[in-house]
Amino acid sequence: MRIGIPEEYGHAILSRALSAFSKRHAKVEVTVRYAHSGAQIEAVETGELDLAVVFEWQGHSGGEVLMHDPTVWVTSELHAAHERRPLPIALYNRDGWCRDYAIRSLEERGLVYRVAYTCDTNGGLRLAVTSGLAIAPISRSNIPAGCRQLTEEEGFGHVDASNVVLHRNPLATGEACLVFSYSGDILQAKDGAKTGVDVHYSVPKEGALLLMYSMVVPKYAPNPDAAFAFINYIQKPEVIAKATNFVKYPNGNLESQKYVDPAILKDPTIYPVPETMAHLYTTTPNSEDVQDKLTDLWQKVLAGQ
Fold it and tell me: Domain 2-68+165-173 belongs to what topology?
């Protein structure tokens, strides 16, 4: 089981939780990843983690809320850095949250500040506070010993209204399944799915195989003229567009696009955008000898040999 967790809870909670879990499930191998919340959520979405505990300060994303744990300004009881002016503060190097929440909470209260300390981790913020270098925005449940929350009465307040949220990888929980298939087949399955079953199709960012179907006339066809007539008919713009609308595969006739359902024409999973096309690739056909060997091998597989 692969777990992602913020540094704030690594020592206080994770050590006890993992100890209890290992006693009950001794045969389960656990892998832990420390990182900030944004990276953890991305890892769950890409399948790198099975579970992740994260901070969310911008609404609710759909995970399980474990607790409400607002971020507050924290000062050392010994050094009283909050009494200095300009106010020395410690912040993360990541700009978004610091600018939108931490700094804004000071500016809204008219507090003059200077950034005295920056770091990448919560441990760095705790060090800045306990050493008396600065005050820092820290989750209320994680205030270090010898430090305290700065209150509204002192001219401070909550930095945000964070929740601690558990996210589960739907593949790990069995809530979803992953299928490798052709785009049109998936989109047809989406149309025929039962109520309540969501089917989504996407092209991997690394790229995918570009499949092309061709209509050909065998060398020894008994009626090649009829075959060519059929090909000419099926490639008429208004005819091939109907095929695209039905099977949800694109076609190579540019003139047909005026007859294609606009929703299908604008669907990037059917008609890929240039950025996606740049990552698609084709394969080189095998030689006749190689293809014969592959066919023989496959026949042995089918025969159980």
Answer: D-Maltodextrin-Binding Protein; domain 2 (3.40.190)
